[in-house]
Amino acid sequence: MEIAGHRLPEGSWWDWEVRGWDAGALRLAAGYDLTYHHALEVVFVAPGLVSCPLAFQDPVFRPPPPPTRPAA
Fold first, then answer.
1. Average pLDDT along the chain, 72 residues, taken 10 residues at a time
2. Which of 36, 41, 67, 72 has its CA 20 to 30 A from that of 57?
3. Distance, first Cα to last Cα, the chain
4. Spatial separation of the C-alpha atoms in residues 45 and 13, rounded to whole Å
């Protein structure tokens, strides 16, 4: 799995949850089963827009679309 051009380490990253957020960062935790523990944390620095539930499974991360120019 790849996020923002970075390849994640090998592992079973099935369960995901939001661990914290503010204007400067979005912190996600991932693991096979978050009931017991998480084995991975991903931090997005200065996210422009986030729309996701607090807990989710088997996500697909996509790069943002290229900026569009307003019509002249």
1. 76 90 91 86 86 89 77 68
2. 67
3. 39
4. 20
